[in-house]
Design brief:
Elements: E1 10-13, E2 22-28, E3 36-41, E4 44-50, E5 59-65, E6 71-81, E7 84-87, E8 91-95
Antiparallel strand pairs: 1-2, 2-5, 3-4, 3-6, 6-7, 6-8
């Protein structure tokens, strides 16, 4: 498929211990690939980068997070290509200590 916006990525985080250091991972398991990604934390861009499009293969982008104080942070990722932008569902990550 060509000339289609990227499929919607799914976010996950490995913050099992509740500290302020974790990785947010965006996985696109199927569908049209993206050529770039942009991570937002609480609505503010914190990272962006290029992706290699190889539709129909899966894609992954990762955001390393550290030094976060107690509280909840909400992440989204935008996957982009020449045809458009697709935004993930939000992911809340709680820092408890």
């Amino acid at each position: 498929m060509t000339d289609a916006s990227p499929a919607r990525a799914v976010l996950s985080a490995d913050n099992w211990d509740g500290d302020g250091r974790y990785t947010v991972t965006a996985d696109l398991w199927w569908g049209t690939n993206a050529t770039s990604s942009r991570f937002l934390e609480n609505g503010v861009e914190v990272s962006s980068g290029s992706l290699t499009a190889a539709t129909p293969n899966a894609q992954r982008a990762m955001l390393q997070v550290s030094g976060k104080p107690k509280g909840t942070n909400v992440y989204t990722v935008e996957f982009r290509n020449a045809a458009g932008v697709t935004v993930s569902a939000p992911l809340s990550v709680a820092v408890t200590h």
